[in-house]
Amino acid sequence: MFGHILLVMSVMTSIIPPKESLVFDVRYGILKAGKLYLSIKADTFRDVPVYHITLKLKSTKHFGHFFKVDDEIHAYVTRDFHASLRYEKHIREGKYRKDLIIDYYPDSGLAVYSDGRKFEIPGNVLDPLSVVYLVRDKGIANIHMQSVNIHVDGKTSKVTITVEDSKRIKTPLGKFDAILVKPNFGDAGFFKGEMKLWLNTDHTLLPVCIETKLPIGSIKARVVEVGLK
């Protein structure tokens, strides 16, 4: 089954749409904790054609009485997913606040932080959020057992991506045949450790379920809305 999926997907070209927005229901254990919003759109940054990727994580009103979350992350990555140009995060979790912008300069091999720090980086470094869409852009057959460079939080590390077998995933939008992709972020960035990313096996490779560990703990998110406008 797995070999058949790789064979079918190896002929796919890029399926990233010019504009897409996804909404997920988020559960924290058995609790309905909030909504996860993922969007991508074609844009220009520093006169370079890019994808602008946005992640928003917001707690429900009820969950917010115990622990309010209002996180927002932006990533700007070249449209071939060769290099990130900016990573911006605004974290609001309980009483914790964090705002940071990283500007990446692939040609000069530097990452410049909004707090004044500078770090040397490889020319092909990505941010953590762009890795999620890299998998969709390159296709399953081309990403299995690959390692990519990311830079965040003052250090450069490698994310190893593995692909496992498929299964049927139930979501509020219906049931999907989905293949499991597992990027391992280690302790770098917003995502912690191994993410489980279930992608629809049709030509869209649409994320239908995400399991990951965030600073607030482990969450499970299932897609409830898909928009292309």
Provide the descriptors you would attach to this structure in a database record:
229 residues, mainly beta, outer membrane lipoprotein receptor (LolB), chain A, 4 helices
Structure description:
Helix content is 12%, strand content 59%. With 229 residues, it is mainly beta. The protein has one domain: outer membrane lipoprotein receptor (LolB), chain A (Clam), CATH 2.50.20. The protein is globular and about 45 Å long.
Layout: helices, strands, pairs:
Elements: H1 2-9, E1 19-28, E2 31-45, E3 48-59, H2 61-64, E4 70-78, E5 84-93, E6 96-105, E7 110-113, E8 118-120, H3 128-138, H4 140-143, E9 146-152, E10 155-171, E11 174-184, E12 192-200, E13 207-214, E14 217-227
Antiparallel strand pairs: 1-2, 1-14, 2-3, 3-4, 4-5, 5-6, 6-7, 7-8, 9-10, 10-11, 11-12, 12-13, 13-14
